[in-house]
Amino acid sequence: ILTTIQERKYVVKDKGKFKPTELGFIVNELLIKNFPEIVDVSFTAKMEAELDEIEEGKKLPLETLTAFYEVFNQALKQAEIKMLDVKRKGIETEIRCEKCGAKMIIKIGKNGVFLACSRYPSCKNTKDFVRNENGEIVILTKETEEICPECGRPLIKKQGRYGVFLACSGYPECKYTASVTLNIVCPQCGLGKLVKQISKKKKIFYRCSRYPQCQFILWNEPIAKSCPHCGAAFRILKKQQLVCLKCGYKEKYS
C-alpha cells in the first residue's frame, strides 16, 4: 500500500515521514465527499468485527462481501454521475480573488497545481500556493527583494512541477528563472548553494544550484548548524540526528 500511494504521487517522503501531495489532498477530498461511509473510521472497525465473526464461524464470508458490495456499488454508480471533473472544473476554495471578489479554485495544469479565479476567462488572476502542516492553503508571497540580473525587475516566487523557483516578474518579455537556495554553500564546488527539489518520482532531494556543472546531491535535509567537532558549515538530518558529512559526528536533533 505504501509503495502504491508513492507511485501514484499521493504522498512524498520528507524527513522519513509521508507528506501528502496536492493530488493526495484532492483525491482524499473526493473520496470523503463521494464515499463517506467507506472512508469513515467506524467502517474499518465494523469490518474488523465482521472478519472476526467470520473467523469464529458466526458469519459466512459471501454474506459479508455481498452486503458490502451492495452499498459500495450504489456509491460507485452515484460517483460516476456526480463526482466532480477536477481537471475541467477544479475544486472550489474559500479564498477570494482580490481582483474581482469571486472564489478561487484549485486547478491542475501541466506544471502542477495552482489557484485560479472561478470567473476565468473574464478574470485571469492566478496564484501559486503550498499547504502548511495542517493541510491549509498558504498563498506564496510572490515578489521578493531579489532583482532580475537580466532586466532589473523584481523576482517572484513560483510553484513548478519540481518545487518552488524564482522567475522574473517581467515574464513573458523576460524569461529569466533561478532556483530558491537554502543559503548553504555547496561543499563540493564551494561556489553554488544548495536548493530543494522534487524528483520525477516525487522524492525530495537537495542539489547544487550550479547543476549540471556541479553534480552534488543530498537525499537528506541539510541543516545550517555547524559541526562542533570539525567546524563543517552544515550537517544533515538523518533519523532525528544531526550528522556531519565531513567527520561523521552525530548528535540528537531537537
Automatic annotation (TrEMBL):
A single MF term (Gene Ontology): DNA binding
Biological processes, Gene Ontology terms: DNA topological change
EC number: 5.6.2.1
Pfam families associated with the record: Topoisom_bac, Zn_ribbon_Top1
Record-linked SUPFAM superfamilies: Prokaryotic type I DNA topoisomerase, Zinc beta-ribbon
Residue span(s) of domain Topo IA-type catalytic: 1-76
PANTHER family recorded: DNA TOPOISOMERASE, DNA TOPOISOMERASE, TYPE IA, CORE
Protein name, UniProt field: DNA topoisomerase I
The organism of origin for this protein: Desulfofervidus auxilii
